[in-house]
Amino acid sequence: MKEVLMNKIAGEIILSLNPGTVMRKWRTLFNLTQSEVARLMGISPSVLSDYENNRRKSPGTNFVRRFVEALIEADMRRGGVNVRRYSLLHRDLSSAVIDMAEFDSPRSVGEMIRLLDAEILVGEKWMNSSLYGYTVIDSLKAIRSLEALDFLYLFGRNPMRAMIFTGVSRGRSPMVAARLYPVKPKVIVIHGPMDKDHVDSLAIELARLEDICFALSRVGSVDELVARLRKLQE
Predict the structure, then answer these.
(1) What is the pLDDT of residues 98-148, one digit of tens each?
(2) In sequence order, what are the beta bridge partners of 130?
(3) Are 167 and 137 in contact (CB under 8 A)?
(4) What is the per-residue pLDDT across 20-46, written as a single tens digit (0 to 9) for each?
(5) Helix, strand or coil, per DSSP, at residue 102
(6) Cβ distance 193 to 216 under 8 Å?
(7) I want to staple 102 with a disulfide (CB 3.0 to 4.6 A). Which of 17, 59, 133, 221 is the partner?
(8) Which strands sit side by side in the sheet containing 97-108, from one edge to the other?
């Protein structure tokens, strides 16, 4: 399990045009400081900072290996929560997942909200928070085809992400699902209701209880919604 995750992280760093940015992303996702990682690598925090800010030439494979090993070791000392989270095995979810992406560099919640012409129903305080990815889900297909562990994978894939549910009638189901699982996405956006008056009041209350940014996108179609989201990767 750990080896697969290590290869995934190392490969993403090595293949990136901005490897330092990807290193910083993974360190942030593991909730580790530069000092913690640098200490395990046997280097100074300033050296790691230089790499993460792309002030040095691309790190070699040996440096990347030591960096990834430090992430894993530090997390295992804390119980291995992130190792288990990002190593979750999953089956093909393509029947319900319309689009999915990870960002090398963080995007703000506010940037995504504006791009999706969305109205925040709960959680405006999260506007300046960082996102490292998104998942667009067809709500009806998800209900019909996904199992409980699939939802756990989708929600836990990267909690610093936005989950966008399309084909929503009132918005209750996505928030009930978020309520049930221990790992919560930072943002849930629904697409379907005409306006906030057509959003289920319980969904809004659950978002408030879970302290999740909950928003309603007014973009005309799912295709346009996906096209706008893909601009965040440019």
Answers:
(1) 998 888 889 999 999 999 999 999 999 999 999 999 999 999 888 777 766
(2) 108
(3) no
(4) 999 999 999 999 999 999 999 999 999
(5) strand
(6) yes
(7) 133
(8) 97-108, 130-138, 162-166, 187-191, 213-217, 118-122
The one-letter amino acid code at 200 reads D
Residue 187 tokens, joined = 């943002």
DSSP H helices in 16-126: 19-29, 34-41, 45-52, 61-77, 81-86, 109-115
Judge whether 225 and 217 are in contact, CB under 8 Å: yes
Rg (CA), the chain: 18
pLDDT of 79 over the 90 cut: yes
Decide: pTM greater than 0.70: no
The CATH homologous superfamily for domain 97-233 is HprK N-terminal domain-like (3.40.1390.20)
Identical fold between 2-86 and 97-233 = no
Residue 138 pairs with which residues in a beta bridge?
Answer: 166
What is 2-86's CATH number, 3.30.950.10, 3.40.630.30, 1.10.260.40, 1.10.10.10?
A: 1.10.260.40
Q: Where are the domains of the chain?
A: 2-86, 97-233
pLDDT of residue 90: 46
Element (H, E) at 223: helix 222-230
Q: What is the pLDDT of residues 141-200, one digit of tens each?
A: 887 777 666 676 676 566 788 999 999 999 998 898 888 777 788 899 999 999 999 999
| Orientation of helix 61-77 relative to helix 19-29, angle to 10° | 10
Q: Helix, strand, or coil here: 70?
A: helix
- Closest by CA to 195, choosing from 215, 175, 223, is 215
